[in-house]
Structure formats: structure tokens, C-alpha cells
Amino acid sequence: MTDIAIEQPIKPDAPKLILRLITIIGIALSLFQLYAAGIKPLGLFYQRPIHLGFILVLCFLIHPLDLKGAWRWPGWLLDLALIAASVVVGLWLPLNIDTIANAIFPRQIDVWIGIMTVIVVLEGARRSVGGVMTIIGAVFVAYAFAGSRGELPWLADFMPGILNHRGYSIERAASQLTLGAEGIFGIPLGVASTFIFVFVLFGAYLEATGAGKFFIDLAYAATGRQRGGPAKAAVVASAGMGSISGSAIANVVTTGAFTIPLMKKLGYRPAQAGGIEAAASTGGQIMPPLMGAGAFLMSEFTQVPYSQIVLISIFPAVLYFGSVYLLVHIAAVKLGMKGLPASELPKVKEVLAEGWHFLLPLIALVVFLVAGYSPMRVGFYAVLSILAAAGLRAFMRFLADGPSGRAFMEMMVRAVKLNLSALELGARNAVAVSMACAVAGIIVGVVGLTGLGLKFSAMMLAFSGGNIVLALLLVILASLILGMGLPVTAAYIVLIILVGPALTEEFGVPLLIAHLVVFWYSQDSNVTPPVALAGFAASAISGSKPMETSFQAWKYAKGLYLIPLFMVFNESIVIGGPLHVVLWNGFLAIIALVAFAAMLEGFLFAALSVALRVLLAPAIVLVFWPDFRLELAGVIVMLGVLGLNWSAGRKTAS
């Protein structure tokens, strides 16, 4: 469900006691979250700290220090101390909230607990998310101390004048980061402990009940007979699976295990097969109704209802998958591929007969969203709906196989095991994203304390010279650099905090569009060399070189760069407007993406000459111009070139 909602690995040689503790604590966390989501909502200073305490304990159990020899015992003792500190972190605010709220100045003990909280969070993030996130968090903490009145005044000498500030004491920084709703216990962790977790749990239930195989089989049944069928199945299956898992890497290893070997068998080069899967899997995080963790965060940041964000994201997501699908089709036609024979494909009726109940939770989810329920309550009902669907399916099989007391007991045992495994899996899958959001809270707190956001906006305005195109290029570069070391959700949070004010206040981009643009650009690190984690995962399955696979993924995922530009320059496709304007801009987006795919591949219905490809480039640029006459001129050129190509294709076919 999240961009890092992939099962947290547990060392195979972990002691049985540790494994049992992980299971017990994971189940307890999931039950606590379900209680808060659907039975009795808790205040933010109760739910967020308790959630963080659970997550930290799980983190240190799943990721212990791996020390050898004589250092092993000190490592265990340190882990035990960190786990004890995690329990304190989770209980301190809930048990002392009245005293802390009524105090004029923070008590010394509260400051020390705050310092411990920051240290434990940074260490937990280092183990679960990676060193880069920890370093960024530590740098922001140091930045809070850099200044004439801060704990580290000498650091101010290394910062340009625009970044200088007065500096803050340990007491002030600790209060900002741990005793209020603007630091670690702020919006990012709030979203992680409510909306994100319950949908991670929903995804865990879908995984435990076998939804993945159902969506993959359905995609093959629908597209397998077409040219390049397995590649198109990868696109369709990734749209469905990615919306559930929210993780490009998890999507690659789940659907890619089936699609990549079949693509290679059909004639795609290994790097090409891996690149197609990586590009399609990346789109899962922008595909409604779930859209990974970013949509929930976006709803909180912009105060736009989650259901509205889902609705306006449907068309851009369809455009992205349509562009990948078209590029895949063009590659299949150029290589002269045929579809798979019907004997090798599952039948739609059989797939639906076997797994139709997996559609019920998704239908229920959409219905509750449209009805206006809060995302947390929707997630709670979605979990209940999949439990009901799985229970109904199991009961129908029980009746079909012949009811008996023994069969009933076996059915109940399987149901209990499935529930316990899903509850544990959901908690483990939430560790990384919750730790990333906790560190993001440190960043948010320091930015609010020092006014860094406004200063960064001024720098961005100076570098771009007030040009919106250059500003967007700076956003792309920043997202790419951040994405090399951060998960997508973390990159989105950091980037929107830093560049969001500039896009909205200085360049006049509407708030929601600014968030969508940053969210989309935060996905590009999955497929853009030199660090393209989804591409690397796909290369491991396809047996191709990681960098070559990443370049192929980058080529097929070009919609990630173009579609956000449509949102900025043709904003009616997102925020709406008069019907004729919306239809016109929607048509512009479709025709421009088709022309871009043809220009990129040099082929659509037939081979495109170099001259025609060169002619398409300025025509595509014109559709972004805020002038109807220039847009019309661009459309006429594109339709003319594509019409000539269609005619050439018919002649070639005849």
C-alpha cells in the first residue's frame, strides 16, 4: 500500500523467541490500529506515540545489530536498551499529556525524553529505511542548532547568507520535535498511523488471500492473445497490483516473476522485458483508488478530501498506463510479434469463477469513498469486506465439498491462521513507511522552526529566474537526487516542504496541482538511472544488466515527465472547468502522448521518417502553450503526421 510497503525481511537464523515476539507485537499493533480505525478513534497524542512505540519495537526486533564474536553480547544489550527506550517513547506522551499541556516551560525530564526520541527514531530509520534518510534527518537537526544563539554556532560559517538563522537550543528543538504536533508526531506520522496503516493491512489481507494471482491471471486472460500479450498483461496487472501494494519494487517482484519470462519467450530482449515491467510497476503508485501513501498525505497537506484526489487522479493515471501500453504495442509491432495461443492462457470466465470475491472489497472500497466516509473508516470497512468475502468463499467450498464436523474445524483453523498471518504481515509492512514518516516529521519540524521553506523558495526563484519551465526542471532534478536514497513517500514529503511554497506562491501553480506534480516526479527515481531500484529489481528477474534495464524502464516511463506538465499548463484536466475546455485539454493530452510515443519509437502504424519525427517535436511543445491558436496549430501538425503514417501503414499492409 505504500511506496515501501514490502514485507520486512526477517533473518532466517533469528531465534524462535524473537520470531514469536515479532508475531505477537505485530498482531497486537494491527488489532490496536483496527480498534482506533473502526471502533473508537483516539486523540493524536495517544494514537501517534503508541503507534510509533509499537513500530520502533518491531523495527529493532526485525533489524537487530549484526555483530560477530565478542561484540555480539554488547549488540544484544544495545538492542534491548533501544527496545526499552521505544516503549518509553510510545507511552510517555499518553501518560503525561495533561502535565505537558499545562506546563508553561518544558520540564527537564520531557527534554531528555525528547532527545532520546529523536535518537531512537534516527537509528530505527537507519535500520529499516537506510542510511540516507538518517543522514538527512541528522543534517536538519544540526541545522536547527546552527546559528549565533544555537548549540552549534560555528556551523553558521559554512552556510550561505540566505540559509542563516538565529539558531536554537536543545530545549527549544526537543520541544518542537517531540512535544507538539509539528515534529515527529506531526502530519506525516499521523497519516502513517491512521490511513496508511489500515490500507497496508488491507493489502496484507489481499496478499494473504491470494489476490495477486487473481489479478495477474485476469490480465493475461484479457490481453494475452494480442501482440506482445505478456508485456500488455504486465501493464494491466501492474495497474491492479500496484494500486494494492503501492510499492514499485514489490510490484516488480510479484507480477514480474510471471510476466518477464513470458516476454522473453515471446521475443523481447531481457533488458526490454525488465524495463517494461519496471515502468508499468512504477505506475501502480499513481493509480487510484489507493495510490500508495502519497494520496493520504496529499489530502492532509492540501485539506482536499481523499475521494476528490482519487477522482481527479483517474485520468492522469489512465494517460500514464496508456502511454506505456502504446509503447509496448509499438515495440511488439516493430518486432513482428504475435499473441500467445489460447491454450496457454487462462480463460476469463474460469478466472472470475475462481476469484470473483476479490473484486468485492475493491467495489466496497470505492463505494465507501464515494459515500464520503473518512479514509481511515473506509480502510477499516475494506478489511472487514475482504474478511467477509474470503469467509463466504471458504463457506461455499465447505458446502460444495460436503459438510462435516472435521471439515468445519479445518476451515476454522485455516481462517484463524490466515487472519493471524495477515495481521502480522500488515504490521511488518508498515515499519519502513512509518519510520520514514517519523524522520519526515523531524524535517517538517526543523523547516517550521527555522523558516527554511521560504528561504528555499527564494533560492529556487533565483535559480530559475522566474521561469516556470526551469523551475519544474529543478523539481525533477531535486526529486531524482532525493529518490536515489529515499523511498518515494519520503522524497515527496521532503520535496513538497521545500519547493511547494515556491510553486504555489511565486509561480501561481494551484496548491493541489503543485502536490500532484511533486508526487508524480517523486516516482521517477524508480526508473531513472543511475539509481533505479525498480529497474534493478526487474534486471535480477530478467537476467539483464541493471543499467541497460534501467534505461529501458526510463524510456517506457516517459509519461511520468510529460503528464505533470499537462497538469501545470492545462490545469483543467485536474481541477476541472467548462466542459468544452476539459474535453479539449483531455484530447490535447491524448494526441500529444500518442505523437510523443511515435516520435520516440520512430514507428506507429509504419516507420516514421526522420523529417516527420523532427516535425512532431515542436508540435508537441505547442500544446503546452497557453494560446488556443498555437495549440490548434500543434494539433493540426500532429494529426497530419499521424494521418500520413496511418496511410503508409495501410499501404504496407496491403
| Helical run tally | 28
Mean pLDDT: 82
Q: Give Rg in angstroms.
A: 26 Å
Order of helices and strands: HHHHHHHHHHHHHHHHHHHHHHHHHHHH
Oligomer state of the chains in this structure: single chain
Main pleated sheet: none
Distance between the termini: 49 Å
Overall geometry: globular
Per DSSP E runs of 2 or more residues, the count of β-strands stands at 0
Helical percentage: over 70%
Class based on secondary structure composition and strand pairing:
mainly alpha
**Unreliable stretches, pLDDT < 50, 5 or more residues?**
1-6
What does this protein look like?
With 654 residues, the chain is mainly α. The protein is 75% helix and 0% strand. The chain contains 28 helices and no strands. The protein has helices at residues 16-38, 44-62, 72-102, 108-128, 131-145, 170-178, 187-208, 211-223, 229-245, 248-266, 270-282, 294-302, 306-334, 348-355, 359-370, 375-400, 405-450, 452-464, 468-483, 488-506, 511-521, 533-542, 546-556, 559-569, 572-575, 579-601, 610-622, 628-653. The two termini are 49 Å apart.
